[in-house]
Amino acid sequence: MSSDQQGDQKPLMQPFSVLEPDGKKESSYNSSKYEGKCVDPRLMTFCITNFVINVGISQIAPFYPGLAADKAGLTYSQIGLVFSINPLGSILFSFVIGSFIQVWGRKKCLMIALVVQSSVQILFGCLNFMTDNKNLFFSMSLLSRFFQGMSRSVYSTVTFAYVPIFWPGEFQKKLAIMETMTALGLLFGPMIGSVLNYAFGYSIPFFVIAIFFLCAEIPTYSQLPPDSTMKTFEKKKKLPIIKAFTSIKVIVTIMNVMSITAGYTYFNPFFVNHMQSFGISENIAAFILTIPAIFYIGMVNIIPKIGKYVKKTFMMSLALVVCFSGNMIEAPFWGEGNTLASVIIGLILVGVSQSFSMIPSIPQISEFLGPVVTDPQFKNNLTDMASALFIMSMGCGSLVGPLLGGSVYDGFGGNVNLTGSPPQEMVDQEREAFRRAMICLGLWQLIAATLFFFFGDGYKGWSDCCRSCSTGQTPSSEQEQQLTKPLNDDTSDDVMSDNDTLSSEASVGNDSDLLQGPPKKTITIRKEAI
């Protein structure tokens, strides 16, 4: 970074200048009080709350399916729908979040979202008192998960929209921290939930999180600026997201991300039941279920280094191959030898494949959008559009995966109770249902991999990689210099940069003007930042 750029970053903590409607009067939000602190309390509040929100989402995987199937009498198709309704709530509400933020303001939306999160956790914690009434149990499960997804979408969107406003010179670094907390929440959720469930019973994991959300209202209210200082009044044309679907390359890339995401969420409704066929309890199954997340986090720092030497299309194409292989080993597709070892090896490959696809997805989609979005005023918004499409793809994968998985598993006869000492015939029936269900997932991924290979430039990535391996060539110094180009640069190379950063839900509706780098003295907050 040049000395001039460093000089530009120095006054980042100066007061934020906010234009009033008449264009004359200004009000300021003074953030200088956070300057020099080792830990910014605003970032800490965002990160911890984001972590707990994702713990609340993922903690049900080990013990809810058993309660729902064994005591309430739900089928695995219905359990899959309960898992899927959460991302459905996020997807549907994402279309109207912007309007609510404009009417109520960011801060008020965050506080309302925390109240909703606390309420649905309490409701979900009371489900064990409703097992005698199947219809009530099922309807309350759907209701709480749907509103949980809605409120999570609001919280994530608003907090990630604050990032380029509070830390404009290092927003990528802050986004990476917050996204890491998201991954850690999803990783440790099943373990935390399983431990609390084992020690204190079904309701306690949900009640503990509900209390946390209510306590989080205090730092949210005290650390964030008043909404009146963040209001703005300039309108901007909406990003032409619909144009993305006129590009076959964008479409197959979206299918790629959907298939990879489904590779991890597909078996959530019935994974614990399958583990019981090996005599493994819910608590141990919870730890096994975190294997993909562990290997995903382990690969996060490795993938950008690999990306300097291969094309992003190669990495994304390879991701589907690896995920397909992992799911086929889990099955296993050859019929015999369904063992715990094969499941663990398959889960490891699924976790590795997540990193190969998720990390380069946004820059690759952004690149494919270049020829489609021809309006000059949107050329600097390609990453925002790519982020929106990426989140939509992950949401669809999280929605379709468990819904389809539970239905297929039920269809193949997997809805059997394996608690206690089940007869071997029932164990064999469940394992065969699991094997067939995973093969169906593999066929889906195989189709997606084929489409991306031929229509998403996957073949170009493979041919380039093979050529590099045969000649032993590495990127030249000129190419290495291009690795640091911003994602919105239309001339950026196809190899990944260390600056290519995985985005988040909140990228939808973010102010791209704020993402162009730090201003020298003040930041004018405009309406499109809401």
TrEMBL record:
Region Disordered, residue ranges: 1-32, 470-521
Topology in the lipid bilayer: Multi-pass membrane protein
InterPro entries: MFS (IPR011701), MFS_dom (IPR020846), MFS_Vesicular_Transporter (IPR050930)
Keyword Hydrolase attributed: no
Keyword line: Membrane, Transmembrane, Transmembrane helix, Transport
Pfam name, any one: MFS_1
Occurrences of domain Major facilitator superfamily (MFS) profile (ranges): 42-460
Biased composition (Polar residues): 470-485
PROSITE patterns registered for this protein in UniProt: MFS
Entry's localization field: Membrane
A Gene Ontology molecular function term of the record: transmembrane transporter activity
Keyword ATP-binding recorded: no
The protein, known as: Major facilitator superfamily (MFS) profile domain-containing protein
The organism of origin for this protein: Paramecium sonneborni
